[in-house]
Design brief:
Chain lengths: 765, 121
């Protein structure tokens, strides 16, 4: 894994955190005061800041920091998260999302907007607590003022006997003979007396002295006078202190940095040593190797050590290994080595014994992340498996007419297993619609702001799962519809009050599973479709005849026609010439259907029905003019055998079929697709009653039904090119390719002959 | 023997950075996603040093450090806290909870390894 991959992970995580942030803020907005919600919101911003910092994304860090500061005020109850506060925070979340996107994809953010929000956030953080201590970066603990060498009080060193220090001479061989150079370096005198807390926090005097030794040549004097008798010894106590003389050019700051982690838990004094204290003086100090008996250390403290095997490094061990680091007292070194050797084997054994445990604990996660490519490859392979299994079944049936039952049973089991594998693999791609729904709340906020309307977005069923591809492609049409609903549907607050409605309009977004498809509803409580205006517009745009007799439902569905726009003035929000026809087309491209029901004065409901997956489809295999076609089962309402008496001619080329006392256009699929030029005899074929857009029913004429089966969808666009009237292709059990009918396109073609024109264009092109 | 580091952080990004950095520096790395998991993993992991974040769900860094320090077997382990320079108060709280030292964010591989070297033998 390299940094780019981690960066990719970071942005993925940002998306999750942003979703978390938004849903948390929305919960707070709904009055949720659970501290964990506030914490989660805070953590989301904090995490983004942390990661952004690591990648040097300054803009993101800066904004996240201000945001985090304000959230911290909420977290510490200094700021009440009321609606006004949350409004700002939700906007800030939007800006944070923008900044993240810019950081990932490049581009620019609305600087004015983000600066404005920084100000608003800062005002929130300050307004409530004028001192705003948490608003400004708390200064890092200032390092102690560095004494100016010349002005530093130079006190004569206390005689060693008096202070109780006993020096341990300390020299580095490599510095021998370089005395002159070394002597010119400033020498510092450090007195260091750890408290017990230093060891309790996992710090170790030995390690501090080791680090110190890296700064330069030093002499360490360890004061062991305070070491009590063994029976009085608290193994976790701190009894020793050190006086260190060090020559370094790195300065006092470097020395203090060594003690950075420990400065709270020790007495530390660093000062420039007096000139006279040099090596010559050192030599005159009495050399007392070790005040306690080495043999006793070897034998007696050992049990004590074992008892407290993993207790904080006791002073004894610290002193001993400090000496090892610093001195040439070989006895001590060897003692230390022995003391240290006791630990590793035990630790290693424990590690080995527990390694398995650790691994299983780590593996106990609830989810794993898998590259989408891998899942897709698996899905493809399962698709091939399904096809292969179908082919196998077919050839067994063909070659072994009297079919041994064991083979047939095995095949049946294989078929069942294949189906189960397929379902399970599809489930991997299934994702809740939540992220898309969450994105919509931002859209609603923005349009509400732009239009001055008050909108409340209510979402339901956000955990409903559907194929990831569907989710990815759902955002765009949904965004457009939401914009439409807010811009055209919901009235202004004044108007709403005037007609006795709540000034705040409600947009409700719902998802649910319905018979193998996902149903997404977008309902608003606005004015509903103004049918008179829609009609007028449709007539003006020559979409319908002036005297056309349309049901309310049909009028409502006129808005999906290409080139239809009811907005008298093209607004910034839902205008731009993109109409509901584009929405409809993108829903259709997903194998979905959309329609609208509207109640004047009470609002409109858009209903989208989408397949749960784009990889397989339950289809009816039919024959048309010698060709095998697959009709998606979801489109079919019923199948029937037409009787001659039910067929009525209508105009030159059209025929109707009467079904239960109502007439329904009969569409000859073979002619629409140009499989044949003459009309088929309906009585010889089968009619498939299909639900078409706009609620009407049509009867599709096919020659025969072969059966019903699940087919794996193979894209025609990807493998060949788009063919009008055909949605995709599949491979049947006998290995032949069958085309999957695009029912809506065929129905549309039967109305306007569009398909033929398109087809000849396609043929020409 | 490779030194073993237990990292506790809820951010996937930071976890991955820690992992890459530590592995490159020759450490064996064990990871947990929050304080609770950290304490669970601790027993089997037997690390030489712990690096933990502060802001985490379920159990934050302070609680985690206290938990480690209460554990008879592991209370001597050096614990480094990932913190931000601006937050002196948090640093102090971490120290009171028993942190050994800290690594100032933004995350920097050199600083991380340096701090680990400082607190381990």
């Amino acid at each position: 894994m390299d940094m780019n991959e981690i960066k990719e992970i970071f942005f993925q995580e940002c998306e999750e955190q942003l979703a978390e942030l938004e849903s948390g803020l929305l919960k707070l907005n709904d009055g949720d005061r659970d501290p964990e919600t506030v914490n989660a919101v805070f953590r989301a911003v904090h995490s983004i800041k942390g990661g952004a910092g690591a990648f040097g994304l300054e803009d993101l860090v800066a904004f996240a920091h201000v945001f985090e500061t304000t959230l911290d005020c909420v977290r510490s109850n200094k700021l009440e998260p009321n609606q006004d506060v949350l409004k700002v925070m939700l906007k800030a979340a939007d800006v944070l999302a923008d900044l993240t996107n810019v950081a990932r994809d490049g581009g620019t953010v609305d600087q004015a907007r983000s600066r404005g929000l920084v100000k608003e956030l800062e005002a929130l953080a300050q307004g409530v607590m004028p001192s705003a201590s948490s608003h400004h970066e708390a200064p890092a603990p200032a390092p102690a003022p560095k004494p100016v060498a010349a002005a530093a009080p130079v006190s004569p060193p206390a005689p060693s006997d008096e202070s109780g220090f006993q020096p341990i001479p300390f020299t580095f061989d490599e510095f021998d003979g370089a005395e002159d150079v070394v002597a010119e370096l400033p020498e510092y005198e450090i007195s260091f007396k750890p408290r017990g807390a230093l060891y309790a926090k996992g710090n170790d005097a030995t390690l501090l002295l080791r680090d110190l030794s890296r700064l330069g040549e030093m002499t360490i004097n360890c004061n062991m006078q305070t070491l009590p008798a063994l029976q009085d010894l608290d193994s976790e106590g701190a009894y020793f202190s050190w006086k260190i003389l060090i020559k370094t050019e790195k300065g006092e700051d470097a020395i203090r940095t060594v003690f950075e982690f420990a400065e709270w838990d020790c007495e530390l004094e660093v000062k420039i040593a007096e000139e006279t204290v040099d090596n010559g003086a050192d030599e005159e100090l009495p050399m007392i190797p070790v005040p306690f008996d080495l043999s006793s250390l070897d034998d007696e403290p050992a049990p004590a050590e074992e008892e407290h095997q993993a207790t904080p490094a006791s002073d004894v061990a610290a002193a001993v290994s400090a000496a090892e680091t610093a001195s040439n007292v070989t006895q001590l070194a060897s003692t230390a080595a022995r003391a240290e050797k006791r630990e590793p084997p035990a630790a290693a054994a424990a590690a080995a014994a527990n390694a398995a445990g650790a691994n299983s604990a780590l593996a106990a996660g609830q989810t794993i992340r898998v590259d989408l490519d891998r899942v897709d490859r698996l899905i493809n392979l399962v698709g091939e498996l399904v096809i292969n299994q179908a082919m196998l079944s077919q050839s067994v049936v063909e070659n072994d007419s009297n079919g041994t039952s064991s083979i047939n049973m095995g095949l049946e089991e294989l078929q069942q297993l294949t189906r189960e594998i397929q379902d399970s693999v599809m489930a991997i791609r299934a994702q809740p619609v939540k992220p898309v729904f969450q994105r919509m709340s931002r859209i609603v906020r923005e349009i509400a702001d732009m239009t001055g309307k008050q909108i409340r977005l209510v979402t339901e069923g956000e955990n409903t799962e559907v194929d990831k591809t569907v989710i990815d492609k759902l955002a765009e049409p949904l965004t457009h519809m939401i914009r439409n609903a807010v811009d055209h549907g919901v009235e202004s607050p004044e108007k709403r009050v005037a007609i006795g409605k709540n000034p705040e309009g409600t947009v409700r977004l719902t998802a649910k599973h319905r018979s193998g498809r996902i149903l997404i509803e977008l309902a608003d409580d606005g004015a509903g479709i103004n049918r008179e205006r829609v009609r007028q517009k449709a007539i003006e745009n020559e979409l319908i005849a002036a005297d056309a007799n349309l049901t309310d439902e049909e009028v409502d569905n006129l808005i999906f026609l290409p080139g239809f726009s009811t907005a008298d003035k093209i607004s910034d929000i839902s205008g731009r010439g993109v109409g509901m026809d584009v929405v409809k087309r993108s829903i259709q491209a997903l194998g979905g259907r959309i329609n609208i029901t509207s109640k004047p004065g009470h609002g409109s409901v858009f209903t989208m029905s989408l397949p749960l997956t784009l990889a397989v489809l339950d289809g009816m295999v039919v024959t048309v003019a010698g060709q095998t076609l697959v009709v998606p089962l979801t489109a079919i309402v019923e199948t029937l055998q037409p009787e001659a008496a039910a067929i009525h001619s209508f105009g030159a080329n059209h025929r109707l079929i009467s079904i239960r006392n109502s007439f329904c256009p009969l569409i000859d699929v073979g002619r629409i697709l140009n499989f044949r030029t003459t009309q088929a005899n309906p009585v010889e074929g089968v009619a498939l009653l299909v639900e078409s857009e706009g609620g009407g029913q049509r009867a599709l004429m096919v020659d025969a039904i072969q059966g019903q089966r699940q087919v794996v969808i193979k894209s025609l666009e990807a493998n060949y090119t788009h063919v009008p009237g055909i949605a995709a292709a599949t491979i049947l059990g006998d290995g032949r390719v069958a085309l999957i009918l695009d029912v809506d396109a065929v129905v549309a073609a039967s109305r306007g002959q569009v398909l033929k024109a398109e087809m000849s264009y396609a043929a020409a092109g | 023997m490779k030194k073993k580091v237990l990292t506790v952080d809820d951010s996937r990004t930071i976890r991955n950075m820690l992992l890459v950095t530590l592995n490159n520096a020759g450490f064996e790395t064990i990871q947990a996603e929050d304080g609770i998991e950290g304490l669970e993993v601790l027993e089997g992991a037997n690390p030489d040093v712990i690096v933990t974040d502060i802001n985490m769900p379920r159990l934050d860094g302070f609680g985690f450090i206290e938990g480690v320090r209460r554990n008879e077997r592991f209370r001597a382990i050096p614990i480094l806290v990932l913190t931000t320079e601006s937050d002196a108060e948090k640093k102090n709280r971490a120290r009171q909870a028993g942190a050994t030292g800290w690594i100032v964010k933004p995350f920097d591989p050199v600083k991380l390894i340096d701090a680990i070297e400082r607190v381990t033998a």
